[in-house]
Amino acid sequence: MAAGSEATTPVIVAAGAGGEEGEHVKPFKPEKAKEIIMSLQQPAVFCNMVFDWPARHWNAKYLSQVLHGKQIRFRMGMKSMSTVPQFETTCNYIEATLEEFLTWNCDQSSISGPFRDYDPSKFWAYADYKYFVSLFEDKTDLFQDVKWSDFGFPGRNGQESTLWIGSLGAHTPCHLDSYGCNLVFQVQGRKRWHLFPPEDTPFLYPTRIPYEESSVFSKINVVNPDLKRFPQFRKAQRHTVTLSPGQVLERKWQEGTQLLLLVKRRMDFGGRQSTRVLFVPRHWWHYVESIDPVTVSINSWIELEEDHLARVEEAITRMLVCALKTAENPQNTRAWLNPTEVEETSHAVNCCYLNAAVSAFFDRCRTSEVVEIQALRTDGEHMKKEELNVCNHMEVGQTGSQNLTTGTDKPEAASPFGPDLVPVAQRSEEPPSERGGIFGSDGKDFVDKDGEHFGKLHCAKRQQIMSNSENAIEEQIASNTTTAPSQTFISTDDLLDCLVNPQVTRIVAQLLIQGRSL
C-alpha cells in the first residue's frame, strides 16, 4: 500500500502478543513490554498499548475543567531562532489558570490577565514538570486514568507521572536525564523529539550550568546550532520522531530486504483512536518542541539499577557546583540554579546528601547481586566494559537478520520491532519541516542514509564512534577557548565544565566507592 493512503482494515496484532486478533487485544503483554524496555538501547514508539486509558481524553480543555480555577506556573519563552539555548534560568514565569492559558493562546485579540505582557506571536508558554501528586492533590482518583502497569510496572499510575502542557514553540533545551528511562504518552497535539545517543555526549558539549539535579544540559541549541563555536556537533547522530495522537503506523517487512511500507491510519481497533508511547532509553539526549498550538503529554521516569551509582555522581556534582558558584556570587543563585531546584544548597546539606547517596549505594550492594563492586575500576576499564555491554545489546548478526541480545552470554532473541514497536532511527539530513512527521514521511525516520536499519549498528562501528567520542572531549574543551582568542580568563563555569563532565564524575564516583569498599 502506498505511503499516505488511508486504510480501514484492523491493524495486525504484533507477534508475541499472546492473544487472538481482536479489537481489544494489546500487542504486548505487560511482561513482554517490560522486557523490551529493560533491554532496548534505542528509542522506539509503542503503538496501540494505551487505547483504553481514560487519560486519552485529557486534552487541555478537559483539564481546564478538572483544574478549574487552579493556579499553575507557566514558563514563558521567546519564539526566536537564536543559537543560544533558552535555559529555564533565562525565562520568565507567571501563575495562571488553564482557562486563561487557552484564552491567551486561542483568542489573541484581547490579551489580559497574567498573560497580558506576552504577545502570543512572540512568546510561548509551557506548564512543564507538573507532577500529578501536586496538581491533582485533591483529585487523587484521577491517578487511575494512567496505567503504566500495562508496560509491566504493577501499581504504577498517575501518582508516578508528570503532565506537560504547552503552546506552539514551547520546548525543553537539549539535555540528558541522569536517572532512569522515560515513557511518554502524547495526548494532544504534536511534539517533535530530537534525540542523540549517549556516546555523542562529547559532541553535545555538556554543562551543569544551569544546575538541576538529574539533568545534564547541552550548550548547543540543537535546532539552530552555532557550528563555528561547537564544531564537534557535526559528528552527532541526530534521531528525530514526531509524536502525535490519533494515528498508527503499519510497518511490513519484506523477506530478505529492508523495504518499509508506511501507512497512516487515524482510527484503529473498531473505531478507537490509536495511541502511541515513546520510549527514551537511559542517558539519551533529547530536545523536545511543541509544533501544534496546544500540546498535552504525560510521562513517567522508570527507575533503573544504574540509578544507585548515578545518585552518587549527582551528589558529587551538586557539591562541586554549589560550592564554587556560591563562592563566586553568594547573592545570585538565580543565574545558575534552575528554578526547579528548591532545596537548600549549603555545603553542610550537600555533604549529608553525598553521604546518604553512598550509604544507599552500599545498602543496595548488600541486598542485590546485580551490582558488583569488583566491576568498578579506577583506570577506566569499567567504562570500556560498559560500552562493550551496550554494544552487545545492540549487536546483530552478519547474516542480515535483526536480533536483540540482552547480554554477552545469552543467545540472541528475535527483534522486538514490528507493526506495534517502531524504532526511532538516525536522520542524515536537517530536521523535518513542521508539515512532515514520522508517520507521514518516506520512511527516513526509520532507515539511515545507507539503507541500513538502526538496529544493525554493528559492534565495530559503535566502538569506532565511541573512540571518536573520547577523542572529542579534548577537542570540546579546546573549542571553548579557541572561539574567543582574546579571552584568556578562565571562569568558574569553564572549570566546572571540566570538573563535573559526566565522564569525570563517573570516575570520581567509582574512586570514592572503591575507597569505601576496601
TrEMBL record:
What Pfam families does the annotation carry?
Answer: Cupin_8
Chief place of localization:
cytoplasm
Give the source's domain of life in one word.
Answer: Eukaryota
| Chain intervals for the UniProt region annotation (Disordered) | 398-444
Q: What is this protein called?
A: HSPB1-associated protein 1
In terms of InterPro entries, this protein maps to:
Cupin_8, HSPB1-associated_protein_1, JmjC_dom, RmlC-like_jellyroll
The major lineage groups are:
Eukaryota, Metazoa, Chordata, Craniata, Vertebrata
Listed GO MF terms: 2-oxoglutarate-dependent dioxygenase activity
Where the record annotates domain JmjC, the positions are 124-317
Compositionally biased spans, kind Polar residues: 398-408
Q: What this chain does, per the record?
A: May play a role in cellular stress response.
**Where is this protein found?**
Cytoplasm
Q: Write the record's keywords in alphabetical order, separated by commas.
A: Cytoplasm
Describe, as the record does, how this protein assembles with itself and its partners: Interacts with CRYAB and HSPB1.
Task: Report the gene name.
Answer: HSPBAP1
Keyword Electron transport assigned to the entry: answer is: no
GO-annotated cellular components: cytoplasm
* SUPFAM superfamilies referenced in this protein's UniProt entry, alphabetically: Clavaminate synthase-like (SSF51197)
